[in-house]
Design a protein that fits this description.
Blueprint lengths: L10 H13 L5 E4 L2 H10 L3 E4 L5 H10 L2 E3 L2 H9 L1 H4 L8 H18 L19 H10 L4 H8 L1 H6 L17 E4 L13 E6 L2 E5 L4
Parallel strand pairs: 1-2, 2-3
Antiparallel strand pairs: 4-5, 5-6
Length: 212
């Protein structure tokens, strides 16, 4: 669904998209912000669901059973609501106040149901900084995810969501050596991800020092 909050595909259309993508070895990411869209996406067998702002327990259980990855993008609605006076006159934003509340509830329902969760931000120009993944993880932790699980969502599960789990996401022999060292323990305080001590890309040190 899009900004008008209506289901934009018929079930046969969405099923055809998923079937053809999978036939070609491609993954399917689905923007779904209302329950009807989420239910249709689950039935069609998408690989990842972005937003998932309006899940119920039945939908979350089915996502978990099918192994569909949820990318909740909690930060984007948080930032919009923080600056609501700037956005409230935009027609496509009218549903955000209600959606923001349901967004957190859906995230918590998904966690309780055992849905696999990956991290992504959905930040757009003018809203915030594009390197906002640490803040996304902070919002996930704020709403009940353990810091260690948030780190997994950003690394191992993020790679799985992209279909790149054989190349990225964990520290293993043969995988791409993209590493980040920080000052502090992010399993206790997720905010230390902004206190960068070292950055390694493909096995080469490319930076260090505290991020702004």
């Amino acid at each position: 669904n899009g900004p008008l909050n209506v289901v934009e595909f018929t079930p046969p259309e969405l099923q055809a998209i998923v079937d053809e993508a999978h036939r070609c070895g491609r993954r399917v990411a689905c923007h779904a912000s209302i329950l009807a869209s989420s239910q249709m996406a689950i039935r069609a067998g998408v690989d990842t669901m972005e937003h998932g702002c309006d899940l119920d327990q039945a939908a979350a259980r089915e996502m978990a059973a099918r192994g569909i990855v949820l990318v909740p993008t909690l930060l984007v609605t948080t930032l919009i609501m923080d600056r609501w006076d700037e956005f409230k006159a935009i027609p496509m934003m009218r549903s955000i106040p209600v959606r923001a509340k349901r967004h957190v509830e859906s995230f918590q329902i998904a966690m309780a149901a055992g849905v696999t969760i990956a991290a992504g931000t959905d930040i757009f120009h003018g809203l915030g900084r594009f390197d906002a993944l640490p803040e996304e993880l902070g919002v996930m932790v704020q709403h009940g995810m353990a810091p260690s699980d948030a780190l997994v969502a950003a690394t191992r599960t993020g790679a799985r969501a992209l279909g790149l789990e054989r190349e990225l996401g964990t520290i293993e022999r043969g995988k791409q050596a993209d590493l980040l060292a920080v000052e502090g323990d992010p399993t206790r305080d997720i905010s230390v991800l902004r206190q960068v001590a070292l950055v390694m890309q493909s096995g080469e040190i490319v930076g260090g020092g505290r991020c702004p």
